[in-house]
Amino acid sequence: MRTMKKLDLALALFLILFSLVLVGLIYFDWFNVGFMVGPFRFHHWSVILGTFYVAVATPIFALIKRTKPESLRNLYRIHVFGNLFAILLISIHFGGQLSRPAEFYPDLGSGVALYVAMIVLALTGFFLRFRLIANGNRRLVRWIHVIAVVFFYIVIALHALHGFGFT
Fold it and tell me: What is the value of pTM for the model shown?
């Protein structure tokens, strides 16, 4: 593996580990993300920013990837690290929701589905980007990645509607 790709892999693993540690700190109430910032709690702003990034950047990535393939190397780096940072922001919200007291515990139905879809997206993207799977399985993993994107967009719409009281 080239040096830059090794560095990217190390940085990606660090972001994933940092996200996991941060969610643990939030879950055990060692780090508070429930404070208000304007009309919403901080962890709601983090999920809004993270989701907005994924919802906007993913189609832009797909479009540029097909129209300007010569820019793929830098484009993949932006896609990978931008989405890993978005996962960090979304994980802050997920940890904040899970850490709520029992009397204020949220309905997690669509949120869990959304988080699972995001994790599947991250794992399949990670395996594809860093070639951690055999070539014969790449087509299946890519197919799962694309299906997870579609599922993610559907559930995100339903989850947002539910969050704003429309369902």
Answer: 0.88
